[in-house]
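Hey L., structure's done. Input below.
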Amino acid sequence: MSKVPLSLTFILALSAIASSTEAPSCNRANGYTVCHNKGVLVDVIQHESEDRLEIDDLDLLAIRENAFKNLTATRLSFMQGNKISVVTRESFRGLDKLERLDLDGNVVPLSASLFAELKQLRSLSLIFNKINGIPRDTFAGLTNLMWLYLGHNDVESIDAGSFSGLSSSLLFLWLNDNKITGIEAGSFARMTELTRLHLENNRLTSVRPGTFRGLHKLDGLFLEQNQLSGVARTDFKGLIGLRLLYLQHNEIADIEPGAFADLGILEQLDLRDNKLSSVDSAMFDGLTSLKKLDLSNNRIGVVDSGAFARLVSLRNVNLANNNLTNVDRKAFGLPLLANLHT
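Output:
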């Protein structure tokens, strides 16, 4: 496998260090000595058995290859006071025991196998890194990863190769607060153990068929604050383990009959702050386990007779702030034990 080229910034920084007679600045704290020179982390040595290492407020721009000397730390953070923009796979050598890496608030550019040295990593956070794309095999080699935080970036699309090489061990994925307009079918298909998927506050206008293929263990799907205009029968097909579905604050004006038919154990459905004008008798077919339904702040003026009759587990339904002139529990088919908010 070819090396990822070092950026000009890093080359210049290393050249400056090599030609400089100035000794690196070293700080010792919490059992570690951390040395840096001209914005480059050059050496980290461990003196005591300390699991946590925080490297903050050093104005770091880069991490030199092999800077870490066989550390036993399980948690490493660069979250405050750095702007790291140059790293390679070799930058993370010597961290064989690392389980959690926090790089929030930097500008780390993603590249193939960037984190492959971190075989024990369970949690990786890259929030607020101005990431605009996810190259193929970026997360290859992370065979134990369970939590991946990619929220608050500038990602515009998710492709079928975005998570190629990622182990099926992943349980939680955050892609919230990006600029995602499209997700290619099968992009999450390898994440067979995924339980929570956060896609809130993006720019999705629709869900492509096959987007959530393979996510049979998904428990919570968060799609609020997008620009979805409707819900189709294919959108949530196969999500047989889903209990929580959040669709509030979209532009949903139409829901196809049977759109939720595969969601037999869904317990909470949030559709507030959309553009629904009616509730028809087949809209919620299949939702026999639904306990909480929020339809507030829509434009609903018509509810079909018996529209809620098949929701045998329903305990709370919110119809407040709609255009209903008459609310008839019996005509709507609401279960006797359901609390109605209007």
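The radius of gyration is 25 Å. The CA atoms of residues 119 and 142 lie 6 Å apart.

-- N.
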